Amino acid sequence: MFGRILVRMDISIDNTDTTCTVPPVVGRFAPSPSGRMHLGNIFSCLCAWLSARSQDGRVVLRIEDLDDRCKRPEVAAQLIDDLAWLGLEWDEGPYYQHERTDLYVEALQRLERARLIYPCFCTRAELHAASAPHASDGTPIYRGACRGLSDAEIAHRSTLRAPALRLRVPDVDDVNDDMIEFVDRTYGAQCEALATECGDFLVRRSDGVFAYQLAVVVDDAAMGVTEIVRGCDLLGSTPRQIYLQRLLGLPTPAYAHVPLLMSPDGRRLSKRDRDLDLGELRARFGTPEALLGWLAGKTGLADDSTPRTAAQLAEGFSWERVRTHRDNVVVALA
Q1: Which residues pair with 243 in a beta bridge?
Q2: Which site in 234, 243, 278, 291 is 20 to 30 Å from 108, CA atoms measured?
Q3: CATH for 26-330 (3.20.14.10, 3.40.50.620, 3.90.1180.10, 3.90.580.10)
């Protein structure tokens, strides 16, 4: 039913003058207002902005606030202020995911009509059992414990706990449908067998919140996003999103994942730990030019740490620079 795919930018030919017309580039920021942005978030947003602007493209701002922990208007307002302070202006938005649930309901109903959705009653403890293998992003690989439940079993279990909803992936022996291939601009050719490396995955949680995979696929298509730039911790999510795009008949953007910024003790920077958050960074560096120049020098986006505006960094931006410095970067303020 579904053949293998290769992500690429489509080019249409104008037969009247034999020139190539490349569709306009649309990038996006999609921060989650779970806390103040840290340096790693800034780096991802900066790369997304530089890529779009270096191609004369547009940028969409989307606030990903489906989870109750993220419905914090004051934090969202701070994110918007921080992006503006950095000079990473956007052309459209901000959009708020909590206002867009009708679109996710419609997509879910389409998948249900195709009989691709089933209820899952597994507890978190069961999913995270020590013996369970995990996908590249740390998500347990689901082995289909609830896939074959009868109507009677579903009715009984529904009286005990609310189910999550999972999307069926192709069977392991269906090689053409199961295998998802794409080319990442930073990390090159990627290939994943959904059945063995992912398993049936969530599209709605048991508390009724739509899963990240479904929401971002619907939103990116609705907003005309043509390229997605984000941290390499989300590289493993891409095959699931491409699979959803194919099922829903949506276009597949180009993907580019960027290295993570790490603390000296080897931890990934996090909002929870308040690692180098922008409040501290704004106070320490004083100007966006000083901060962006230092960050660009640390990550290889520039040859040194001379203060620069985002617009000045865009003039010298290339994905070759990112590919050359694609290992995760340890950062610390002296």
Answers
A1: none
A2: 234
A3: 3.40.50.620
- The first and second tokens of residue 187, run together, are 């990390």
Tell the burial category of 266 from Cβ atoms under 10 Å away from its Cβ (0-12, 13-18, 19+). exposed
Partner residues linked to 120 by β-bridges: 164
Contact 250, 5 (CB under 8 A): no
Residues in the chain: 334
Cα–Cα distance measured from residue 135 to residue 51, given in angstroms and rounded to the nearest whole number: 29
Domain boundaries defined on the chain: 26-330
pTM for this prediction: 0.89
Sign, Cα dihedral of 189, 193, 194, 199: negative
The H or E element spanning position 235 is none
Contact 240, 194 (CB under 8 A): yes
What does the pLDDT look like over 136-149, one tens digit per residue? 677 788 988 999 99
CA dist 61 → 48, 80, 95, 223 (Å): 11, 9, 6, 10
Q: Which two tokens stand for residue 266?
A: 């080897």
Distance of alpha carbon 44 from alpha carbon 230, whole angstroms: 5
Token pair for 293: 């120049």
Q: How far apart are CA 175 and CA 254, in angstroms?
A: 24
Residue type, 154: I
